[in-house]
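Work through what follows:
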Amino acid sequence: MSESGPAAETQAVPQAKPGRTFGDLVRKSEIDTRLLGMVAALAVIWIGFHIISDGKFITSRNLWNLSVQSTSIAIMATGMVLIIVTRNIDLSVGALLGFLGYTMALMQTDGVISVFGLNLTVDALKDNHWYTWLVVVAVGLVLGAIIGGLQGFVVAYVGVPAFIVTLGGFLAWRGMIFRTGGKQGQTLGPLDDTFRYLGGAPERSLGDAKSWLIVVLACAGIVFSIAMARQRRRRHDLAVRSVGTDIAFAIVGCGVVVLGVWLIAIRYASPISGNPVGIAYPVLILIGITLLMTYLARRRRFGRYVYAYGGNPEAAELGGINTRKTITYTYVVMGMLCAVSASIQTARLNSATTNLGIQNELDVIAAAVIGGTSFSGGIGTIPGAVLGAVVMQSLRSGMSLLNIDSPTQDIVVGVVLVTAVAIDALLRERRRPAMLGALAVGVALTAILIQTGRP
């Protein structure tokens, strides 16, 4: 007699074993999918330009120059993330960079600190003493913090929209270049010899021995951070990744560091001495600032307040957060980062000109947005903004190798920016088909523009 009923149905239909999909592995490993997508997009851009340029893109020389050229925008983009997360904007970063760079150059060439028409002569600064570059950078950082704080105060406490305040700053700080030191916008140079190390040049880099030391320290830091994260999770009774996954992350992270430094910094020989160039100092500064800003955003109270306000301003105020102070501090940080970028750009040029920092504000905003920062507030990562800056500079570098004119390059960057914002908006609305369509249209337009822009 055959069995019937629920028991028979249970025996007849075997239980499905849960499978392990790629999405499950990504979720369990807690990888940032936005960051993973950025890395994939960067890889596609590099490989595409390498093929189109007949093998000229992925070379040690080009990648080394790309890393140095990306630093200034990437540094400012880390601060722009915090400002956009709070639903504000800063249009003055390029003009502020130009003003600060011109002021720091004036101190080195004329020994004059000129701020708002007040001139303080310090003749010793122009004599290339060992401390000259330290004083110059310190003054730039303080002045950047004051100007940033002033703009933030007007936004947060006076209530003037950030767009208007920073647009006024965009005009004012660019004009201040011509009022600084009575120079009427003259080109200032040459600059202090030690200060020029901040700009990055083949003969002013770490070299192979110091670069390998940085690699060892970086690998030790990766292993230590993974171990500490695991320990923190256990201490707070949170889910812990498997030991194998953590070991795999450590191996992959260290492998990427070793391969990257070897391919970009060690294999590139100086055109003058023929020795390995090594890591450029601006890249080292960018790495340090990225780590510091990530720690500030993720581990400190200030960073948590920034994201809380951006996610829900009303709830943040009801929760006791001093939102006005938080907004002001984001502009203070932005001003100091502008000073760092100004140091790098002026040192790289060995001079200061009136067009220093022109269009940088657009590149910085684009880098932050392409890196996943949302204008709706509350969403954005520091590493994502840095990757966004590298993506933008990769596009410009690849198009320069193809001899594409500057206007076409601007059009391509504009298309990429709009595409990135459209993808972000569609993802938040969970419209995946429309998001894929926007991505396809953006890629197609970019490819057509690049192809038609070639001579």
Observations:
- Confidence is low (pLDDT under 50) at residues 1-19.
- Residues 207-235 form the longest helix (29 residues).
- The chain has 17 helices and two strands.
- Residues 57-201+281-356 form one domain.
